[in-house]
Design goal:
- This protein is 51% helix and 15% strand.
- By secondary structure, the chain is an alpha+beta fold.
- The chain folds into 2 domains: 2-101, no CATH class; 104-203, no CATH class.
- The strands form 2 sheets. It has a 3-stranded antiparallel beta sheet. It has a 3-stranded antiparallel beta sheet with strand order 4-6-5.
- Helix 3 packs antiparallel against helix 4 (160-203).
- The chain starts with a strand and ends with a helix.
């Protein structure tokens, strides 16, 4: 089962995942687009812990996973480029503990989240503007007029089956040409939400 959810607070996200586990749905993996994939499982109490860290190379990432595994935390989902890592305790005796108890570790998590979200947000916006600007300058498309996205001469004067065939034939190419900026805008929105999450954490006085 897949669920689309966006959170601006780590604790609320951890609570949500724990509630899903108690209802028989265990987290299997997470996508940066906010898609949670759950696997049907016997209801159980699982206290998830979320960490956000990026790494310069795979060796450092592997060392990080090994360090937490030795400390009693099992990785559920999280990759080298993802940033987000979801853990569950291997021993129920410390399932209510935090991944890191020191302030510096918490600060590193928030600072990494802020930096990456802002960089990604700005780059996505810049790329979207450059794409649209180039397209508009070349009179290829107009943002607010989808008809201009189709380049078949006389398409909108056609009728009947001829129009339908030409329209359906070109539509995949239109999607290919116009999708990138919309995807970039979507990514910008997602990164903006993640930046809001970091800001919320900072306002709570923990970073």
């Amino acid at each position: 089962m897949k669920k689309l959810r966006w959170f601006v607070n780590f604790e609320k996200e951890e609570k949500y995942l724990s509630e899903m586990a108690s209802n028989g749905w265990k987290l299997e993996r997470y996508s940066i687009f906010g898609i949670y994939t759950f696997k049907k499982n016997p209801p159980q109490q699982i206290n998830y812990r979320i960490d956000y860290r990026t790494f310069k190379n795979r060796k450092k990432h592997s060392d990080y996973i090994d360090f937490l595994d030795d400390a009693g935390w099992k990785l559920v989902s999280g990759g080298y480029h993802l940033g987000y890592h979801f853990f569950i305790p291997k021993d129920k005796s410390f399932e209510n503990d935090a991944l890191f108890s020191d302030e510096e570790s918490y600060r590193q998590r928030i600072n990494a989240l802020v930096k990456n979200c802002l960089y990604g947000f700005l780059l996505s916006i810049i790329y979207a503007i450059v794409f649209w600007g180039s397209a508009l300058n070349n009179s290829l498309i107009s943002i607010f007029d989808p008809k201009t996205w189709y380049l078949t001469p006389g398409l909108w004067e056609m009728t009947g089956w001829r129009f339908l065939f030409s329209f359906l034939f070109e539509t995949p190419f239109v999607i290919f040409r116009s999708a990138p900026p919309f995807i970039l805008v979507l990514i910008s929105v997602i990164l903006g939400i993640q930046a809001l999450r970091a800001y919320y954490e900072q306002k709570r006085g923990k970073a």
